[in-house]
């Protein structure tokens, strides 16, 4: 979102970012002003809850039942954020300043509830910037049809083409999703009903979003129905380009024909167990490629010479280097889009959240291989990496995917800016809001109409039947009377 | 489509247009080559069938039952086109030349079947250029959800917000639509099964369309679900701009503060009954505005001086003139988009086809008034025209609509060119094709899965019930045995 904010600032817009004084990610910048408000929890609390999300990843394979554990952890994490939002909304001084601030819109990720509530309180439109929401709340709130017959449910492991058993599973998972939705968003619902209207749910609140900027792209996601107020800006992060630092440049330039491998499991995993790290080190030692590894643990003494460990990697710029051969990643969408933009095949270790689904899609597209982080061995690593490097089909397929991904009428950053400015210019995008929002579940699916028509049909049938029987009886009686007479 | 072809030609593409030797609309041009093939009917046959479509319009108000009459006339018209297509497909010389022509794609309006069949025979992708197809075949073929609870059915007279009785009507009309579809496309189906595969329907054939360029825009149409392979190019015809001819320019420039009115009922209506024309002449005589009228009949001797009759009007350029006050139109989409682009409110006389639905939408948006051509009088005309000119809300609303319509990330002509070239570059757009095409009706709606789950549920319930009853009986027996003993 920072990229979009920066671009908006360059086009003359003033941006104010509201930051809790214990914040995970937001730092000050030249592109925007910040307004820091106090919250009741510390950065350590937040980090603690955040780390919970990735607990136990290296120990055992993920199970179906982990869904409920992960939901609980997610609720733990977001409940702190709800507290933070409460602090903001109860901060009378700040709120009255915001009320007279003359803002045109709220730009927010509806993964957290505060932006949407603020937009509603200030009576200004909201533009959403997101990949998607847990349990598909974005689809539901925006009235976007999502037929379970070919849209794979989260965590189902399905692709868009399913056998009968897979469709049964998909249907059941969709049911679980609805149940999970209620748990995940219950404290959001409470927050909304405390600060806005008594009976409003979070889903209802976000249904007012003017434009949904989805970090989504159909080269990588399975195609499915969409809505007129959805704009697709998947790969927007590829716009962030910079020259490589001299030290890194020298390392990768010198990697020869064998090229190099980029390895990071993202910012959410801080430390990898020593035993797991050892498997990686041993595998890398046997490869002719050089390796750049985002590694925050203590480096071993005998680390192979072809491996460079760093606390942070200029990921996109590294993948853009022509000698980049493989990207080892956990399958977060940021990394995936950078890999697609730069056409680098992947070796993937999905950790949690939507990552497993992402990885499934890329493996199905033939541009990645998948391994488990909990049982990774040097052999498995070597087989997978050598396969990706030697078998040309991985590279060919991702080159094709990349070409299609980059071939768009408007580049994602520009598209995001356009729609944000559009909403400012026209005070919303009401012409793109479907009337389905005014219908309840029964009306939407025409169940009342179907019931009514069936009632008429049965009445007509019943009356016809009664008439027939009446006539039949009359005839019979006459017949028997005749016979008696005879 | 001519605009798109011209633009493609300017960007270096070679375009070949296949023209039956009896053609309604296609003339040669510098922008494309033509290949004329002989057909079994004459231009007079074609004109005759075409005129049938508008027969009786001036005599009586349209009825619900006209649907069936109009469907029959439409089938009469398209059956000639099917004959024409047959002539092309059986023309071995031409077909073998086309086969080795090295074409990249077929650009066609699927309203007529020949383009899609040709694309399939030549194994090249098809790009569709259309508004929409009769009875919503485009939506059905492209697997685009269209919930009857808020997407008004054709000819229903509904808007996107419906009462219960309106929803009942909408549902019934959707049912009629499915029936009508079978009649309209039956000779297309036959043609397809004769020339392609035995059991292929026309709907199935057009489902392979790579990109659907819809002359559609949500400022004017009700928003509804869409698909990733649909691009919206409504208003593409506004790109056709030219300076006004001197004679016309003088006439409209001299219209003073009162401005002028543009009046045309489109190219499909050749002659208006004298009595109807008289009502218009009398009304115009009493107006301070000047009137430009596309009039092909014999001009009366006492035509008012403020009226200029012409065989053809530069419609878009006239509407772009700042003094244009009202556009009197039949409600074809071409004219409507030109009116929206140039923000001129409308007085509408829907004649046939989708025009009545178009008019309903614009009236609901408050940018137009509606009158019937069969019972128009001077008084009605004067009231409506004075109302549109005096009541500022019509102008204000269409100015707002126009601003939103024109405010797009990519202008429609450019977007159409982009997607056409995209399909050429990537030999299709398979990444945007949903997997729903592989499912039958039962699978799509998960009816098999629901049936299976219900079966399991009932089995479990039945077994549980039997077990309970068994236990209950055992207990009872013991109880009664005890009692007997006692």
From TrEMBL, chains A, B:
InterPro entries xrefs: UDP-glycosyltransferase, UDP_glucos_trans, UDP_glycos_trans_CS
Stored Gene3D superfamilies: Glycogen Phosphorylase B
Transmembrane intervals: 449-472
Protein EC: 2.4.1.17
Database matches in Pfam families: UDPGT (PF00201)
Recorded catalytic activity of this chain's protein: glucuronate acceptor + UDP-alpha-D-glucuronate = acceptor beta-D-glucuronoside + UDP + H(+)
GO cellular component: endoplasmic reticulum membrane
Keywords: Endoplasmic reticulum, Glycoprotein, Glycosyltransferase, Membrane, Transferase, Transmembrane, Transmembrane helix
UniProt-annotated location(s): Endoplasmic reticulum membrane; Membrane
Membrane topology of this protein: Single-pass membrane protein
Keyword Transmembrane part of the UniProt annotation: yes
Keyword RNA-binding: no
A GO MF term: glucuronosyltransferase activity
Protein family: Belongs to the UDP-glycosyltransferase family.
PANTHER family to which the protein is assigned, alphabetical: EG:EG0003.4 PROTEIN-RELATED, UDP GLUCURONOSYLTRANSFERASE FAMILY 1 MEMBER A1
Protein name according to UniProt: UDP-glucuronosyltransferase
Protein's organism: Labrus bergylta (ballan wrasse)
């Amino acid at each position: 979102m920072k990229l979009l904010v920066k671009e908006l600032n360059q086009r003359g817009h003033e941006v104010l970012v509201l930051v809790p004084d214990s914040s995970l990610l937001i730092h000050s910048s030249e592109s925007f002003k910040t307004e820091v408000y106090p919250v009741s929890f510390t950065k350590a609390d937040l980090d603690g809850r955040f780390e919970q999300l990735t607990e136990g990843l290296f120990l055992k394979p993920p199970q179906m039942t982990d869904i409920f554990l992960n939901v609980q952890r997610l609720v733990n994490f977001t409940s702190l954020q709800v507290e933070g939002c409460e602090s903001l909304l109860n901060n009378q001084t700040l709120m009255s300043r915001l009320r007279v601030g003359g803002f045109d819109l709220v730009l927010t990720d509806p993964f957290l509830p505060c932006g949407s509530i603020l937009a509603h309180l200030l009576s200004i439109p909201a533009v959403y910037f997101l990949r998607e929401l847990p349990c598909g709340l974005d689809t539901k709130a925006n009235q976007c049809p999502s037929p379970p017959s070919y849209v794979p449910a989260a965590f189902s492991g399905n692709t868009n083409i399913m056998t009968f058993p897979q469709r049964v599973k998909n249907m059941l998972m969709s049911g679980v999703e609805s149940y999970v939705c209620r748990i995940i968003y219950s404290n959001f619902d409470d927050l909304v009903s405390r600060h806005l209207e008594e009976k409003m749910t979070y889903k209802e609140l976000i249904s007012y979003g003017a434009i949904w900027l989805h970090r989504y792209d159909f080269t990588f996601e399975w195609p499915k129905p969409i809505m007129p107020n959805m704009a697709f800006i998947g790969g927007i992060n590829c716009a962030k380009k910079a020259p490589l630092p001299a030290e890194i440049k020298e390392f990768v330039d010198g990697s020869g024909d064998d090229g190099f491998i980029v390895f990071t499991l993202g910012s959410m995993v801080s430390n990898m167990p020593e035993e797991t790290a050892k498997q990686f080190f041993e595998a890398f030692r046997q490869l002719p490629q050089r390796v750049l590894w985002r590694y925050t643990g203590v480096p071993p003494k005998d680390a192979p010479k072809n491996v460079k460990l760093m606390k942070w990697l200029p990921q996109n710029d590294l993948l853009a280097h022509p000698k980049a051969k493989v990207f080892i990643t956990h399958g977060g969408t940021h990394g995936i889009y950078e890999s697609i933009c730069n056409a680098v095949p992947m070796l993937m270790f999905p950790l949690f959240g939507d990552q497993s689904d992402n990885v499934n899609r890329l493996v199905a597209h033939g541009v990645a291989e998948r391994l488990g982080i909990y049982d990774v061995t040097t052999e498995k690593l070597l087989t997978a990496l050598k396969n990706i490097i030697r078998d040309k089909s991985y590279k060919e397929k991702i080159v094709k995917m990349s070409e299609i991904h980059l071939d768009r009428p408007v580049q994602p950053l520009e598209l995001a800016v356009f729609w944000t400015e559009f909403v400012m210019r026209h005070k919303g995008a009401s012409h793109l809001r479907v009337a389905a929002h005014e219908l309840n579940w029964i009306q939407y699916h025409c169940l009342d109409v179907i019931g009514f028509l069936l009632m008429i049909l049965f009445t007509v049938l019943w009356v016809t039947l009664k008439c027939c029987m009446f006539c039949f009886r009359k005839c019979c009686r006459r017949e028997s009377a005749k016979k008696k007479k005879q």
